[in-house]
């Protein structure tokens, strides 16, 4: 006998154990006796830790004081953040002249203005904006930071940078408002959309040239006071070294990786040797090598300052690590991609830059960002060979007479600063990876 | 028809038969290689001539003769005999290498153990535990190692109580003591017949292996599982212990004792060593934990389900099914992380632990000059370690690949 129910059974609601808070807690925290005990112990340990941190770092902490002794007088068991606050300028800017600090702030502001369009959805020509950031911004910022007289090369580069900055900003503004490019709007305003493409292009170039000439004339009217690199320091110096390292390690790494996978034996062997040499030794030995051996390599009378030596060392070192990551990405690309690119008639450089590299780099985004985070963290090593980066400044607080012996708080502050930077970078890389991923998710 | 026109046109183009010198691939490749080789050669030649010229004009000597010259500075932590005034720069090099290898070996072992623990905790089905270990990993991975080392040194180990108020970890009998001069532990002093116990340990280990093989064979034949761990552990501990007692306990302990203002005797680990050890272990264990986690997750979930389905307990499923398959994904990064520990131990220079870069590359270089030789020797040391490790890695990879087939 069969019983057939013609009525559709209504779906029951999910059991409480799946939807309620208590159900979730039972499943994830108290699934067994052992787990329950573990959870309770952990909660107690967390409570102790957080309570200790809260009372030491915030509740009992001293924020306003003149000396460490005063901190102790106010509260013996709390942190003495007053020392950090007193040294805040030193931590961020090092020994940069106090009346010139606006130059560093302006440099940072310009960088932000320059790069914001990269995140605006309707702006076109992002590759151009990105490339100008890497190739032109350093000259403008470098001059802002170092100052002094400008030679003709610097004048040209600064003018080009200013032209691009203004052009980029106007272009992005137009892009956000109307979704069009600067060139389209210019042509419309001039009322010459009907002319031949070649003439239109020439007119645009003329406008560009005119803007460049204006920028050139304007930049001749001012210059900023020279600040020796010796006075650079703090987070600013760390960021300069890490920034140059980041900007140069990717192209350097790509070239080295291509060299290592090249079919030409001489190039392959040289790249491999170079990469393996730098990867097998610690960064600190490379830095020592740079500061002790570079002066011996240079012809007489040519003196490279310590900052430049360090930057070269950091760039070479990180390019080699980047090269291995890029190579791993290249190996993951199937042979069919190469063959397909050859079939449609692309040469070596065409294949690499349009077909292979975009895929390889996209695959390796988390690893690349991992290396960049490592680079940022490793920049603290320059304090060992005597540059006044953020770590030197943090350590100097404990040697300053009013704050003698203040060790923990500055280091914790520095650690928190680095944590924020690095954590943000790694989270952003995960986001980018998901955004750029073209594979179908199940 | 335009399409037909194009087809006719393309038929008219005949492939070039003659040899085109500038567009031939082989000619180009040879040209590029010669170009690169000559540029590199020129740079090398230029650097060597300017360097030798610079050395001459500055009156600097070259050669390895300086290694025999006495160094004249003290090293506060050493594994071999070194006396100020007698020891040479060569001895300093040796002291530095041994200290580096010592701290690295200890830190690598601790890093792997801690990394595995945290890695497993990351995968715990207890939400709180998983999140706590995630926080551990993120916090220690995202702060510079150098800051961590200096923090442990200046913020923790240097601020410990003075000698008279040492922490006592042995419950009041003053065996294991910790104060701001370091950690004091008793150190064994070998008696005459201690070698018999050593032999006994080796015999016990071999016997345990034979027992293990026999147990596996027995299981294959009869299907009965014979417990291996407890009998082996008992064998390895009890047999040497019995031998040790029979031969008359030939082992003395050198115990730290308070004499004047300091402890004398036993073994001392200076604060710099402790700080470096703790910082290296914690920092790298965070990376190791992620490796372990990724390795275990790389094993298909079906393997775990199938293991449970055929009736294995979760712990045995982990041991027999999951871990053996995860190991090929864990071991290569683990080895390269061990290499990172060796390299990062060079940061000891910031807290004055007398390690290779600190004593040899920094102090000796300042005193003796010879920049090229000293930098070269240091780099060769690291490269030889790196080559050894990558050689081991290749052997392991080959081994794993064979097993896979």
Summarize the structure.
Chain A is 71% helix and 0% strand. Chain A has 442 residues and is mostly helical.
Model description:
The complex is a heterodimer of chains A (442) and B (405). Chain A has 442 residues and is mostly helical. In chain A, 71% of the residues lie in helices and 0% in strands. Chain A contains 21 helices and no strands. Chain A has helices at 16-19, 21-28, 33-59, 68-74, 82-86, 88-93, 101-115, 126-135, 137-146, 152-178, 182-190, 197-220, 234-260, 265-280, 283-297, 306-331, 335-343, 348-363, 365-378, 390-397, 408-436. Chain A is globular. The model of chain A has no long low-confidence stretch (mean pLDDT 86). Chain B contains 12 helices and 8 strands. Chain B is globular and about 75 Å long. The mean pLDDT of chain B is 80. Chain B is an alpha+beta fold. In chain B, the strands form 3 sheets. In chain B, strands 1-2-3-8 form a 4-stranded antiparallel β-sheet. Chain B has a two-stranded antiparallel sheet with strand order 4-5. A two-stranded antiparallel ribbon of chain B has the order 6-7. The longest helix of chain B is centred in the first third of the chain and has 34 residues, at 89-122. In chain B, strand 6 and strand 7 form a beta hairpin. Classes of the chains: A mainly alpha (442), B alpha+beta (405). At the A-B interface, helix 3, helix 14, helix 15, helix 19 and helix 20 of A face helix 2, helix 4, helix 5, helix 11 and helix 12 of B.
């Amino acid at each position: 006998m069969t019983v057939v129910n013609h009525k559709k059974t209504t779906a029951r609601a999910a059991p409480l154990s799946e939807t309620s808070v208590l159900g979730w807690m039972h499943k994830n925290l108290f699934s067994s006796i052992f787990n329950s005990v573990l959870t309770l112990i952990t909660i107690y340990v967390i409570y102790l830790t957080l309570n200790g941190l809260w009372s030491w770092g915030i509740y009992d902490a001293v924020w306003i004081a003149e000396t460490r002794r005063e901190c102790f007088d106010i509260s013996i068991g709390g942190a003495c953040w007053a020392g950090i606050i007193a040294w805040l300028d030193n931590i961020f800017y090092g020994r940069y002249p106090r009346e010139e600090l606006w130059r560093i702030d302006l440099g940072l502001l310009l960088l932000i203005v320059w790069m914001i369009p990269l995140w605006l959805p309707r702006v076109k020509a992002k590759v151009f904006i990105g490339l100008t950031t890497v190739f032109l911004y350093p000259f403008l910022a470098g001059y802002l930071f170092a100052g002094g007289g400008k030679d003709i090369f610097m004048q040209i580069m600064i003018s080009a940078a200013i032209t691009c900055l203004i052009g980029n900003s106007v272009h992005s503004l137009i892009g956000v408002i109307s979704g069009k490019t600067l060139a389209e709007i210019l042509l419309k305003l001039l009322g010459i959309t009907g002319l031949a493409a070649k003439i239109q292009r020439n007119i645009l170039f003329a406008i560009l040239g005119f803007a460049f000439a204006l920028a050139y004339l304007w930049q001749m009217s001012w210059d900023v006071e020279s600040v020796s690199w010796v006075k650079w320091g703090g987070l600013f110096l760390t960021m300069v070294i890490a920034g140059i390292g980041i900007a140069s390690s990717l192209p350097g790494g790509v070239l080295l990786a291509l060299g290592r996978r090249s079919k030409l034996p001489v190039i392959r062997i040289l790249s491999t040797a170079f990469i393996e040499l730098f990867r097998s030794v610690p960064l600190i030995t490379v830095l020592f090598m740079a500061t002790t051996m570079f002066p011996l390599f240079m012809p007489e009378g040519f003196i490279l300052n310590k900052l430049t030596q360090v930057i070269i060392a950091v760039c070479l070192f990180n390019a080699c690590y980047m090269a291995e990551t890029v190579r791993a990405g290249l190996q993951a690309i199937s042979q069919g991609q190469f063959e397909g690119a050859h079939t449609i008639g692309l040469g070596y450089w065409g294949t690499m830059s349009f077909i292979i590299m975009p895929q390889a780099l996209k695959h390796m985004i988390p690893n690349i960002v991992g290396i960049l985070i490592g680079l940022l963290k490793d920049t603290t090593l320059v304090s060992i060979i005597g540059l006044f980066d953020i770590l030197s400044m943090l350590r100097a607080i404990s040697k300053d007479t009013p704050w003698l012996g203040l060790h923990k708080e500055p280091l914790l502050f520095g650690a928190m600063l680095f944590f924020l930077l690095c954590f943000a970078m790694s989270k952003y890389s995960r986001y980018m990876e998901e955004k750029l991923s073209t594979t179908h998710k199940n | 028809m335009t399409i037909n026109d194009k087809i006719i046109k393309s038929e008219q183009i005949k492939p070039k038969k003659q040899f085109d010198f500038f567009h031939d691939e082989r000619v180009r490749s040879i040209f590029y290689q010669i170009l690169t080789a000559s540029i590199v050669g020129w740079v090398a030649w230029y650097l060597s001539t300017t360097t030798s010229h610079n050395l001459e004009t500055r009156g600097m000597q070259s050669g390895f003769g300086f290694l025999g010259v006495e160094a004249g500075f003290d090293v506060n932590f050493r594994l071999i005999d070194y006396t100020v005034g007698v020891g040479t720069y060569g001895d300093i090099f040796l002291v530095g290498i041994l200290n580096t290898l010592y701290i690295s070996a200890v830190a690598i072992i601790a890093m792997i153990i801690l990394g595995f623990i945290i890695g497993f905790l990351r995968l715990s089905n207890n939400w709180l535990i998983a999140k706590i270990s995630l926080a551990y990993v993120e916090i220690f991975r995202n702060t510079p190692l150098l800051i961590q080392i200096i923090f442990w040194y200046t913020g923790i180990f240097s601020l410990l109580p003075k000698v008279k108020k040492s922490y006592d970890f042995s419950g009041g009998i003053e065996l294991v003591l910790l104060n701001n001069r370091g950690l004091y532990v008793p150190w064994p002093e070998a008696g005459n017949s201690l070698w018999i116990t050593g032999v006994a340990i080796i015999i016990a280990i071999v016997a345990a292996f034979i027992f293990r093989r026999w147990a596996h064979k027995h299981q294959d034949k009869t299907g009965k599982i014979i417990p291996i761990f407890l009998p082996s552990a008992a064998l390895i501990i009890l047999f040497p212990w019995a031998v040790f007692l029979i031969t008359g306990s030939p082992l003395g302990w050198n115990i730290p004792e308070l004499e004047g203002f300091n402890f004398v005797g036993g073994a001392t680990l200076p604060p710099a060593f402790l700080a470096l050890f703790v910082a290296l272990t914690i920092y790298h264990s965070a990376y190791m934990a992620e490796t372990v986690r990724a390795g275990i997750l790389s094993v298909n979930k079906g393997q775990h389900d199938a293991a449970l389905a055929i009736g294995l307990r979760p712990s045995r499923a982990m041991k027999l099914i999951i871990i053996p398959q995860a190991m090929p994904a864990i071991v290569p990064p683990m080895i390269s992380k061990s290499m990172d520990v060796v390299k990062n131990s060079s940061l000891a220079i910031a807290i004055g632990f007398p390690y290779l870069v600190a004593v040899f590359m920094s102090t000796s270089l300042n005193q003796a000059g010879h920049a090229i030789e000293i930098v070269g020797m240091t780099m060769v040391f690291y490269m030889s370690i790196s080559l050894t490790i990558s050689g081991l890695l290749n052997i392991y990879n080959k081994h794993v690949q064979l097993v896979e087939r």
